[in-house]
């Protein structure tokens, strides 16, 4: 076989996940091992090298077929130069030339990017965005992350802040609360799991009549389940989370006119009870030409998005 393959590395604080992808983004083989982050950057880079070689060794491919390696890494980095400037969960990762260090070990070209961008790239390349060249992803979890793909390429922006969609300040001043970033009224304060739980807790503490009162500690899933069962307070909370997400998408639509919005992360498991009101609000607040044919869909790759996107960095990053 002379087919080219790409290795994707999803570097987490405790586990490194790796995968082999084809040029089309099909994930063929997986491997994972401990990061050993506490032993410092040299050890982490050695682990990535060992695991990559084990991954290929256990597959039907040869090392010669590896066309490149991509790595998604949490933290702040100089993407073009391949330096990790700072990664809070990795002791000693301060101005580490990760790209160069890996290229020396692999003898192959390497690209790095931050883990959130990489997961978006994976979803765009081989998941819910397959075949679509301009799209926007929202990841609704503890916070709200995101990413923007224009003409098939990841947008990182002047200072790497492109795609920080959770910090679009969308909630009007009088209703806004402070976000973890220091600003007020960010999308993340209402449309994340944290935001949904806060709205539910507030409602319970206010004494609103809701089945959520019967629960000890409330999760975002509890709120969606209650909404599906017809609880009015839960419906109001879900609709508020959906409303601001739809408004945010409407703002994005006239900037880059994406063909598809992809919604992933734990909160997206709620499905249409969340996405139907998002679609409605989006349509209402977007001028016709910017919403015709535009789809709002759920992400497909789940936990594999990081590995697939990392493998795609060499082709699409
Ligand atoms: Zn913010």
Spell the H/E element sequence.
EEEHEEEEHEHEEEHHHHEHHEH
Large-scale geometry = globular
The CATH H-level homologous superfamily of the largest domain = ATPase, nucleotide binding domain
Radius of gyration: 21 Å
Return the structural class. alpha/beta
CATH fold label of the largest domain: Nucleotidyltransferase, domain 5
Head-to-tail CA distance between termini: 26 Å
CATH first level of the largest domain: Alpha Beta
Number of domains: 2
Total number of helices: 10
Tally of extended strands?
13
Residue-averaged pLDDT: 94
Low-confidence blocks of residues? none
Summary, kept brief:
By secondary structure, this protein is α/β, with parallel strands linked by helices. It has helices spanning 41-57, 98-106, 115-126, 188-191, 193-206, 220-228, 232-256, 272-285, 288-291, 305-316, and strands spanning 5-11, 15-21, 27-34, 66-73, 76-78, 83-86, 94-96, 110-114, 135-140, 144-150, 153-154, 260-264, 295-298.
Protein described:
- This protein has helices spanning 41-57, 98-106, 115-126, 188-191, 193-206, 220-228, 232-256, 272-285, 288-291, 305-316, and strands spanning 5-11, 15-21, 27-34, 66-73, 76-78, 83-86, 94-96, 110-114, 135-140, 144-150, 153-154, 260-264, 295-298.
- It is α/β, with parallel strands linked by helices.
- It has 2 domains: 5-122 and 304-316, Nucleotidyltransferase, domain 5 (2-Layer Sandwich); 132-300, 2-Layer Sandwich (Nucleotidyltransferase, domain 5).
- It has a 5-stranded mixed β-sheet with strand order 3-2-1-4-8. A 5-stranded mixed β-sheet has the order 11-10-9-12-13, with helices on both faces. Strands 5-6-7 form a 3-stranded antiparallel β-sheet.
- Helix 5 (193-206) runs antiparallel to helix 7 (232-256), helix 6 packs across helix 7 and helix 7 (232-256) packs across helix 8.
- 48% of the residues are buried.
- The chain binds zinc ion.
- Residues 167, 179, 181, 183, 186, 188 line the site of zinc ion.
């Amino acid at each position: 076989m002379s087919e080219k393959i790409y290795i994707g590395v999803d570097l987490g604080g405790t586990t490194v996940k790796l995968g082999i992808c084809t040029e089309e983004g099909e994930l063929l083989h997986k491997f994972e091992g401990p990061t050993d982050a506490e032993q410092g950057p040299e050890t982490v880079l050695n682990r990535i090298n060992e695991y990559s070689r084990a991954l290929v060794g256990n597959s039907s491919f040869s090392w010669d077929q590896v066309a490149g390696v991509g790595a998604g890494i949490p933290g702040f980095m100089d993407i073009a130069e391949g330096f990790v400037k700072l990664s809070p969960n990795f002791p000693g990762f301060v101005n580490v030339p990760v790209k160069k260090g890996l290229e020396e070990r692999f003898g192959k070209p390497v690209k790095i990017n931050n883990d959130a961008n990489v997961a978006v790239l994976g979803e765009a390349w081989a998941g819910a965005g397959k075949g679509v060249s301009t799209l926007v992803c929202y990841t609704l979890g503890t916070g709200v992350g995101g990413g923007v793909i224009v003409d098939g390429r990841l947008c990182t922006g002047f200072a790497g802040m492109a795609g920080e969609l959770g910090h679009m300040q969308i909630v009007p001043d009088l209703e806004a609360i402070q976000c973890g970033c220091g600003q007020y009224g960010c999308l993340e304060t209402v449309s994340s799991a944290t935001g949904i739980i806060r709205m539910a807790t507030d409602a319970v503490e206010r004494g609103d009549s809701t089945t959520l009162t019967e629960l000890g500690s409330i999760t975002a899933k509890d709120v969606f389940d209650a909404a599906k069962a017809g609880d009015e307070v839960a419906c109001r909370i879900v609709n508020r989370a959906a409303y601001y997400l739809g408004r945010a998408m409407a703002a994005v639509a006239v900037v880059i006119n994406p063909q598809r919005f992809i919604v992933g992360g734990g909160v997206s498991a709620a499905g249409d009870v969340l996405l139907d009101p998002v679609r409605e609000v989006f349509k209402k607040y977007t001028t016709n030409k910017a919403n015709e044919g535009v789809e709002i869909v759920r992400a497909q790759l789940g936990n594999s998005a990081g590995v697939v996107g990392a493998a795609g960095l060499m082709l699409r990053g």
